Amino acid sequence: MLALSTSFVSLMVLVYISAAQSVAPIYGQCGGLTWNGLTICAVGLTCVKENDYFSNCFPLSTAYTPANAAAQAAGKLYFGSATDASEFSGSDYYYSYYLKQLRQLTPENSMNWNATEPEQGVFTFAGGDAVVDYAQSNSQLVRGQS
């Protein structure tokens, strides 16, 4: 029977703890052009590219495909959605995460007549500007609607 020294066992525990702390957790960021953090996902996870600037760790057991990647695989140019600033400025992490998967956003009600001219002769485009700013910060396209 092989006897292991206490220092060897301590070293192995330290290596294990260090290794466990040097991988990205589930849904954690694991890559991107400007990313300087962890690039290896924990066991059972895989790094999925969302766009050039963002990749994150998803379970291997799920058949996950980002919405835009699925649309492009089906021959579409991109996948997008209409939204307003109130929908991504709140605390709903999952909806915000979903929006970042899209390649295109359209300002929804924030660009309707009653929102852009709340009283005659008084104009505001703050809601539409917020959607455009959000899209630009996530490298997304913006489209208008009529």
UniProtKB/TrEMBL annotation:
It comes from the Eukaryota. Residues 1-19 form the signal peptide. It holds the Pfam family CBM_1. Keywords: Carbohydrate metabolism, Hydrolase, Polysaccharide degradation, Signal. Residues 22-58 form the CBM1 domain. GO terms for cellular component: extracellular region. Residues 71-146 form the GH10 domain. SMART domains: fCBD. GO terms for biological process: polysaccharide catabolic process. SUPFAM superfamilies: (Trans)glycosidases, Cellulose-binding domain. PROSITE patterns: CBM1_2, GH10_2. One of its GO terms (molecular function) is endo-1,4-beta-xylanase activity. Belongs to the glycosyl hydrolase 10 (cellulase F) family. This is CBM1 domain-containing protein. It comes from Gymnopus androsaceus JB14.
